[in-house]
Amino acid sequence: MNIELLHIHKRFGPVHANNDITVTFNEGRIIGVLGENGAGKSTLMKILSGYQPATSGEIRIDGKPVSTNGPLAAIGSGIGMLQQDPLDVGAFTVLENFSYGQPGGLFFRKSRDYFKKQLAEYSQRFGFDLPPEMPIDALSIAQRQQLEMVRLLALGVRTLILDEPTTGISAEQKDALFNALRELAHDDGMIVLLVSHKLEDVIALCDEVIVLRAGELVGAKEMPATTQELVALMFGGELPKPERAPAPIGDVVFSLRDVHLRDTRLDMPNLNLSVRAGEVIGLAGLDGSGQTLFMRACAGLEPTHGGRILLNGADMTGKHYRDYLTRQVVFGAAGRIEEGLVAGLTLTEHMALVMDHKPIIQWPAARQRMTQQIDHYAIRGRPGDHIEQLSGGNQQRVLMALLPDAPQLLVLEQPTRGLDVESANWIWQQLLARRESGTAIIFSSAELEELVTYSDRILVFYAGRVHEVTNVADTNIDELGHMIGGEFNHA
């Protein structure tokens, strides 16, 4: 199977997201698709996988023109895409989602045992933990990505497109995934297209890369290549290293006292933490180790089962998120569209939701404020655009634009998830500016370098246990990786 994209154009109003792109993908190859956020790479992959129609251009498979008018048509042509925010059905179980779309699928004309066996085989092959009867809303984002991947393989796709597939998975899971992708491409002759901002993953996995910039194809390179070479292709030169200027640490603004948290998998008693104004607390751990439960409890989104939560001395135990929000505690979810933003609303409508509430919405003021924020945060979009029209990186910038200027506490799940190096550095510039104004920050990240670079202290979560790293400046990434794996003697 060989795929040709010929003179692909895609326009969103005045935005030329893909500009005359011609490229060939050959079977048996793992190809990295690189570019800064908003470069057009996800749009191009959505055109190939049927989620977006091209404005003009042609797709050929083995020399024959094909139509990918919709995801089902693309899957019928052997092309499937695992998107960064998985497209699953929230009311279904893992098994029901896995069987959905397969011949005899949801209504189980084939037996449940057949699909359960098939799911188990794929899960074992890739080292995934996908309990068949678990509801989707109980899965992490990483597990949902894994489920969508094995579902596409079960549907028989021969070209697999993966958008940021290693977000939130362990090193062991990534190794297993990469080994499987190599087997699928090099042994089974599939095409694997990897959209990723993690250049170390591209270097470790890909046979070649293509690079997009501002909607145009600007380069292609056979691997191996160095990080510096790939950065130069993406941005036209080297980027400055991120810097974290010191900031004064103030009084305690937020504290946990003997807090007890639990869910269906974890039991976390006797949690104690004091966070000072201007302090940055990083949370590390494999997906499902307890950091998500912890963060949501810190913002009133999960109940406590003992202990007290204090905010500037006020007892917030048992309060709801709206009470925390009133006191300038803001939570940012990892799932941008699922929780952070509202699909179907425009950028202006999002701004209206967070502005001072009055009996009548002041639409001109909301539009003016959003226009100012689009300029300040370099968002590639317009006030009237619907949020789902924007790239993942630009959606993340919108989330930043909606944050208050000087909250008491920011609780952020993976604030740079899916962002390129330049965009991630820029997001941290905005966060550190708030820190200098006294805002305390609790954030989680799967990027160990990010944790070490920006944290004053790091809390490492492992199976519900928490280990505090206070000497971050003396802790390297290798030591932190061992701690995440449960080897706390490396601290």
TrEMBL record:
UniProt-listed SMART domains: AAA
Keyword annotations from UniProtKB, A to Z: ATP-binding, Nucleotide-binding
GO molecular function, one term: ATP binding
Nucleotide-binding among keywords: yes
One Pfam family here: ABC_tran
Domain ABC transporter positions: 3-239, 247-488
PANTHER family given in the database record: CARBOHYDRATE TRANSPORT ATP-BINDING PROTEIN MG119-RELATED, GUANOSINE IMPORT ATP-BINDING PROTEIN NUPO
Protein name in UniProt: ATP-binding cassette domain-containing protein
Species classification: Bacteria, Bacillati, Chloroflexota, Candidatus Thermofontia, Phototrophicales
